[in-house]
Every structure is written in structure tokens, then in C-alpha cells.
Here is the input.
Amino acid sequence: MSGDLQHEIVRLLDAVGKKAEDPMGGITRLLYTAEWVDSQMKLKDEIEGYGLRAYFDAIGNLYGRLEADASSRTGGETILTGSHVDTVRNGGKYDGMFGIIAGILAIRYLKEKYGKPLRNIEVVSFAEEEGSRFPFVFWGSKNFLGLVKQEEVENVFDHDGISLAVAMHRAGFGFQKENHERRADVKAFVEIHVEQGNVLEREQKKIGIVNSIAGQRRFSVELTGTANHAGTTPMEYRQDTLFAASKMIAGILGNAKLQGRPLVATAGFIEVKPNIVNVVPGNTNFSLDIRHTDSGILKQFSDESVQLIYEIAKECDVAATVDMWMNESPVPMDDKLVACLENVCKKMNLDYKIMHSGAGHDSQLIAKHIPTAMLFVPSKDGISHNPSEFTEPELLTDGVLALVEALYQLAYVK
Amino acid sequence: MSGDLQHEIVRLLDAVGKKAEDPMGGITRLLYTAEWVDSQMKLKDEIEGYGLRAYFDAIGNLYGRLEADASSRTGGETILTGSHVDTVRNGGKYDGMFGIIAGILAIRYLKEKYGKPLRNIEVVSFAEEEGSRFPFVFWGSKNFLGLVKQEEVENVFDHDGISLAVAMHRAGFGFQKENHERRADVKAFVEIHVEQGNVLEREQKKIGIVNSIAGQRRFSVELTGTANHAGTTPMEYRQDTLFAASKMIAGILGNAKLQGRPLVATAGFIEVKPNIVNVVPGNTNFSLDIRHTDSGILKQFSDESVQLIYEIAKECDVAATVDMWMNESPVPMDDKLVACLENVCKKMNLDYKIMHSGAGHDSQLIAKHIPTAMLFVPSKDGISHNPSEFTEPELLTDGVLALVEALYQLAYVK
Here is the structure.
């Protein structure tokens, strides 16, 4: 049956992504676009084709449901799986979509093999997670959780000036009712996703069990010095902002490397003015992204890094301003669910790794309200958000089978 | 008379620069443009207005000449002063032009005070030094020295596709004759220029005597790593090119600071890809400019820097290529002329500083063929190649008076 399953995973990934293939490469499926509507409708058809009930909520999250046995005492409870349907621009076909397809196929597999469960099982295709069309993230899971109010997106527009509300209405959806409450029936959420990193591949593991999603702090650092002639200004008379920035980046990233996992620190963006070979840079801005699974360590390392920035700025005679514009706390996954996933992998003899997620996921919102855990399948070369995103079909299949077993434990076993 | 002189310096700087004032700020007077022709013709008029003989050479270098006394045994010898007439785009009104105006006014001053000299005195307004219109530098002094062949500029075009030859012909000039030889009569060249740095100002000196022009080596460093997700890639699995570049720049510039004057090292340009806050930079290119007055030390420091680049690249698991695309040797000034200028400053009780030039000048070409030295006047805040370039009129006047005295020693004293 796993040969069939693998064939079905590949078929669904291709079929559902077809219309969203971007002439500039990869998949572009932004919230409420024609490509998005096409994919959600195709997913609905597939869900119904497998004999499951499909339905949308108000804002366009799509669900596929296998009802519990009518006689079950836990028939009012639901086990949820799934992920998000949207992509970044020119993204890959696995990010988000694999978790939806895996959920659909897992439920179909369980239904065919075991019939009706003791608890309802649902798969969700969340409308949006990436924030790629509108400057607003987690629109799907936030609405699922009843965490977002209409006024929060009143002034949210895409690049063409179309408001989120107008785009939503054009796609056939609308805001939730004012008194919308979070569903009380959902007792567990298990999301399967591509790793988007290279840890599983490097360590030759087949599957990852996520026990925590890292918190992250992001900073903009702005350095102001003086743009002097590169030949005529002695080193001691310079206010060289790129020299200062280099010392800061080398220092902070060096410290992060010394401290080791799960700490990561990244300077991804740098802008220098005037950026001319023979002029000492008078202005340098750079970004700093720091992540850790422990909020105390995250705060401490961030504070020490900011301290180092000010020390080096003083030493280099440049002015520094540091702006922390993102501060997201780490989110632990549910211990019991993690243990359940670990037992599943042991039982299946799957070479697994307990790990954290350095990237953000719908699960980090849901985990605060519903017991949640995640499974990761390896990403080839760690590449994601890119047309070359790829995972071997065999590894995708292992992931779906692990999800099958986990959902079995959660929905079929008393 | 120095009050008159100061007034005349300011009048000439304003009058000659008028048409070249750029609506976007500062002065733009590129080789063979209408602004350039206007300034050279105005300078010619001023030279003739002071009763000196003005003439152009074939390519458009302008000369103003005070003939030696007919009875002088050294009447076949010439003492030359001057600088270049062109500017960078949106440059200042002092760079280059001050040296020409100082020369004209110094010769007029000497003529009025002492009459005919024992040696001819000439001022030159070199056609070009900056390389701002065409990718070719020192066009004026190279032609003066007979160092450039017609074929060298056959494929030299400006941004609008106009060749140097066509621009030159349109301005009314043409190539030198094939058998053109360097003038044998010029026995000394003294160039006065704005410092373009902040050393004199910081050390509260009124004038600089240049004993050497620094050599410079310029490098392009290209680093190739992998663009990974900033959250999901552990520090030890990264090939982070901005981390590597930061270590290189911090290391090399730190070494330069430790070694101290006259060594300078600058990373003025950096380019990072993809340059996104949450992506580890997969590609980073940066520039390195190293200068010193001693060719041995310049080579050694450059070699050590390149060595450090390769070491850090290896340590950071990124590929590095280093391209040295400029290698200019240091040029010492003439000892006797430097001593002469020092005596002049002592005699005039001018607070001077013996120093090197970190910037390039026409003098560095001429010094290889004719005894040469330079005088610097302070630059406010060290700013040059910028509309805010400025030197106090009093300091300009001190500079002209020092040039007067130097030319007197060289052209009136046996």
C-alpha cells in the first residue's frame, strides 16, 4: 500500500500545484488569488473524492472530515492535522501543501484500513501563513483560533492597493461573525511539514519530531560615522561604520557559534553608504536575527549582543541605534504528543530526531490553545522558499505513514 | 598685499567655477565638456589679463608663462607649478582648481614684486586627472610627459558613447604629434592642492609639505557560500559569507589600525546576496584598498591580508577569490625640493607638517621624470569630492604665499 501512497502523494502535489506554477520559477500561490482559489477547490474535490466531508469556514480555511463512529463516547472530540495552502512568491511545492496532502491521504488510509474512528479526524488547509501577499501573517490559523478582529486588517493592502477584505470577498469569502468562538472539540493538532533546514539530511535522519518552536528577536542596527577619503584619512581619525559593523557581526555571530545549538544568529541584510571603493563608509545599516528555544537564553544573548554593539560603536567612534522590531517567544510542543510521536517512530523503526523548529509555523499559534506537535521530513540541501525545494518521494511517504500511525493512536485508540 | 591676494583668490575661484556649478550641487567640470572649455578659456583670459603669455598644447593643457630675463644664463630652464582643471561629478571648487589659481596668482605676485626671473616660470592647468568622464586617468599630465599613445585611448568612451578623441576634437583640440617628446626645460614641479583629508585640521597645522605619495593596491574579494534559512540552519552547518567577510574586514582593518600611519586599509564597498533579513548570505563581494608610502610594507601588508582572507574563508567553509586590480607603487618626492619647501615655511613662520599624500595626484606621474614636491592646504572636516569641500580663505592665502616664496627660491635665486 505504501507504493500506492507514494504515487498518490506525487500525483496530488503535481495536480494541486499545477495552476500555481510561476513562469518565473516555482510555485506562487498568494492568499485569495485565482491560483489560491484553484488549489483550494482542487483540494476540496480530492477530499470529497476520497469520501470525506469537505467544508470551508467563513474566511476560506478548508476542512476535510472523517466522522467518528456514532456510538463512540469520544465522538464529540476531533483530532486535527494539516498545514497552510499559500506559498511565498516563487516558492516550492512542498512548503505547507505537503502537510495538507499528507493529512488527506492519512485520513483516507485510516478510513480504508480501520473504518470509523473513535474521535473525528479532520485535515485543515489553512488559507494563509506566509504573509507574502499582505503584510499580515497566520491569517488562516488566527481565524481558526478566533484570534483576529475585523478592524485589525482594515488597513491591510497588497502591493496593488487591494485590501485583504476586498480580496477575500472577491474569492467568495468574508469575515467571521463577531461572536465567533474557538472550537472546543479539537483535542490535538499534528502538523507535518518540510524541515526547511539541513539538519535531518546532514544527520541522515528520516524524520524529525519537533518538541519546540524557537523564539526569535529581530533587530535593525543603524550606524552613523563619517564618509572620508580612503587615502587621506589615517585609521585613527576615521569613523568607519563598515569596520564597526564587521566587528559587531563577527563578534555576535562568533559568540553564537561558540554557544551552539539551538542558538542561531544571522546578519542577513547590510546596506552601506556611499558604498564606493575609495570612500570610508559613513553609514551602515544591518539586520540581526537571533533565535533560541529558551526565552531566558534568547533574552540574555540578545541583551549581550546589543551591549556589544554599543561597546564597539563607542570604540569605533560611530553612533549606533538598535531597534528591536520583532520579539516572538519560543513555543514548546505538547509533551504527551511528542512522546506519542516518538513511540510511533520507534514502533515503525523510523530513524528519527527530536529537534526544534527554527522557522515559524501555524503550530506555534495553535500550541498555545490546543495540544500540538509537529513532524518534519528532510529538505534536500536544506533549501526552502525556492523553486528547488525538494524532498525524495520515499521520505514523503515515510512522513505520511508516521502521520497515519500518530492519527491512529490519537483517534482510534481509547 | 595679502589682503588683495585673498580677495583675488576668492574672486578667481568663483569666476572660473561659475558655469560649472551643477544644479545637483557642487561643481561638475568633466574633460572637454562646455563647462571645461569655459573654465580653460576664462583661465586663459585671467593669465593674459595679468600680462603673462597663455598657450595651449595639442590636447588642451593650458599654460601661463613668465619669461626669464633675456640675459639670464638659466633662461632656458623652467620652473612649473599648477594642477588639474577637471572635477569629479558634483565635486568641490578647490580640488585641482586651487592649484592652478594659486600658480597664476603666485606668478603675477612675483612678476609685480621682482620683475623678470632667472628661470622661466609656468603655471599649468592640466586637462584631466580624475577619470570622471572617461575610464582613463591623468590624461593631462600623461600627455605633458609624452607618456600616452593615441591607440591607448582608441576604445575609450564616456557614458554616452562619445569617444575621447571625438570629445577632444569637438573641444578644439587633437592628439599630439607622433614624435612628441617630453620638455627638457622643466627643472622642477611644485603642485599645491587641498589635502582632501583631516590630518592638518586635526593637528592644527597651516600647511603640509608632501614628501611622498602613497602607493595603493586595490582588491575585489568574492565569497561564495550557501544561502540558507536563518532559523533552521545551525551555526555549524552554515556557509555564511557575510560572517566570513565581517571577520576578514574586522581582521584586516584592525591590523591596519594597530600598525598605524602611514598605512591605511579601507573596505568601502560591500554587496550581499540575497540581502534578506532571514536568509544566511550565500554571496558577498567586498573591496579592499590598502595604501602605504613604502612599497615593501605595502606588499607585505597586502600579502598578509590576502593570506588572512583565505584562512578565514577556509575556517568559515566558503570559497574565496581575490583579484588585485590596481597596484600603484609609492612615489617619493624630491628631497631637495622638500627641503626647499621646509625652509620656506620656516622662514615664513608657517606651522607646517611634513606628511605623505594618501590620495593620487598629477605629481606622482611627474615626480618620476622631473624633481617634484607638493604643498597641501587644510580641508575643512577632511571633506573632498563633495559640494561641501571648503578651505578658509586665510589658509588658501598662506598656501599661495608659501608657493610664491618657493617659486622665488627656485626661479629668482641662482
In short: Chain A touches chain B through 64 residues (CB under 8 Å). The first helix of chain A runs from residue 2 to 17.
